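User: tokens in, sequence out, please.
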């Protein structure tokens, strides 16, 4: 999953990348795309409390999980784009770096405290999750150094990290055992002990710092005239999507399917997310970028509602997990006569017997109710930020 309260703005630009554009009107299409993935994110988090597994064994369960794969990549990519436009607004790379470090460390702290409590409804901090907000925070801290470079250079560094990430595994294998925790933090993941506390690293830094850096470089293209940026979005998005299809089809066709394997189309779409492979990122970011020109033309009440969520992503994120958790407990109580809150003490790692899980219909009903409830505070906050912005709102 982007969590960025940065206003994404652009102005008429002469088509060269050497002269930075000046901020002007907000690019609503980026807010719309961000809003779509924020809404989709809630499906997966309702799934956690429903007991439905993350993918398989039926196509319905598989696609309930698969559609949410777009969230984290777009989430992080547009955070990089937002950082680019904030830099253009501030016209001071040092000020941008200070903001990124401050906000990044705030996000890390929120992940390990507020969001931990929201996921579990407990104050037991002996087992913590390093999730998407943790990763986003550390990537922002690292971006504070990268933003001192020209945007195209940052974008190229991002692509190198995305496509060269597999080199880190053999490198880590020859490093001293004492440095293993660093490689887990950077790329390998797993559980790290810090005193009496264990941290389960779900989202590592690479390739996600590459995704954010690529998004920062992408900001220079989004600052072009609308017609030019639409062409670039289509070129980049369709190229990435086509490359994914060609490579994934070739791999599925040349690798024999084991006994009981799912259909070929599901194997093609079931790309590695932890850590996110280059194929996973092409599969998700390619279509998302290609759809930006369509989002440019979206009008009407539905586009307005979705855009509202995209303008206040961190506010939405901080609200949606405790709301989903609380709503799920109510649903469990109404359905079974017992909320069974102890089952979620280790959320989002939840294991519920198949006979007790929700149906997909109930899962999607609760999802719709949660999103409808969230719209009210998100609309209020978006209007407040637009009407009377204060400095702290840039962080939430």
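Assistant: Sequence out:
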């Amino acid at each position: 999953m982007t969590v960025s309260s940065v206003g994404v703005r652009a102005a008429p630009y002469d088509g060269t990348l050497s002269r930075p554009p000046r901020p002007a009107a907000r690019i609503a299409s980026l807010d719309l795309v961000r809003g779509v993935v924020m809404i989709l994110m809630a499906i997966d988090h309702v799934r956690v409390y429903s007991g439905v597994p993350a993918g398989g064994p039926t196509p319905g369960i598989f696609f309930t999980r698969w559609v949410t794969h777009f969230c984290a990549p777009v989430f992080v990519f547009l955070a990089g784009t937002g950082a680019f436009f904030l830099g253009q607004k501030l016209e001071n790379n040092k000020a941008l770096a200070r903001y990124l470090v401050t906000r990044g460390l705030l996000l890390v702290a929120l992940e390990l405290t507020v969001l931990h409590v929201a996921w579990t409804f407990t104050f037991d901090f002996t087992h913590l999750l390093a999730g998407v907000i943790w990763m986003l925070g550390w990537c922002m801290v690292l971006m504070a150094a990268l933003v001192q470079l020209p945007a195209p250079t940052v974008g190229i560094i991002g692509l190198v990290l995305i496509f060269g990430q597999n080199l880190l595994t053999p490198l880590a294998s020859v490093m001293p055992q004492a440095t293993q925790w660093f490689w887990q933090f950077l790329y390998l993941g797993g559980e790290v002990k810090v005193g009496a506390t264990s941290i389960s690293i779900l989202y590592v830094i690479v390739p996600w710092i590459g995704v954010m850096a690529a998004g920062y470089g992408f900001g220079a293209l989004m600052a072009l005239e609308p017609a030019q940026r639409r062409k670039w979005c289509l070129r980049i998005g369709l190229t990435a999507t086509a490359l994914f299809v060609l490579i994934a089809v070739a791999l599925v066709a040349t690798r024999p399917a084991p006994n009981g394997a799912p259909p070929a189309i599901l194997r093609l779409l079931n790309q590695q997310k932890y850590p996110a492979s280059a194929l996973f990122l092409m599969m998700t970011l390619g279509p998302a970028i290609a759809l930006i020109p369509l989002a440019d033309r979206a009008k009407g009440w539905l586009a307005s509602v979705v855009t509202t969520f995209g303008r206040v992503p961190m506010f939405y994120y901080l609200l949606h997990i405790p709301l989903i958790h609380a709503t799920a407990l109510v649903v469990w109580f109404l359905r079974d006569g017992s909320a069974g809150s102890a089952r979620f003490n280790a959320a989002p790692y939840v294991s519920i017997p198949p006979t007790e899980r929700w149906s997909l219909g109930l899962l999607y009903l609760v999802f719709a109710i949660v999103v409808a409830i969230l719209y009210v505070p998100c609309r209020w906050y978006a209007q407040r930020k637009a009407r009377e912005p204060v400095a702290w709102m840039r962080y939430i």
